[in-house]
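Late entry, zinc ion complex.
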Amino acid sequence: MRDELDRSIAILQGERPAPLAGEGYPHDSADAGSTLSETDRTEAILDSARGQRTEVLAALARIDGNTYGRCVDCGVEIPEGRLDARPDAARCVNCQAKRARRR
Ligand SMILES: [Zn+2]
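Prediction complete; structure with ligand written out below:
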């Protein structure tokens, strides 16, 4: 899963036009609008891929620390069904819901 994300991030970074390319970067002003939205979309995907990668790395750290499969907040065992759906889930459904409400 981590390798997959690493690949996706690498591909997205390759596709993304360099934000500060400086001289020599071909800039078509007529096309600026569509280029910008395309860049924004790639950035958004990149952001979520990076966020997911952080979650996966945290899950791998928990596997190393033998705390994987337990809620990081209350320590309860996360049901297998939830781990199947979200292998990188750090919290039980209750704590995740509490956290979401706090935001
Ligand atoms: Zn919990």
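The two ends are 27 Å apart (CA to CA). Will revisit in the morning.
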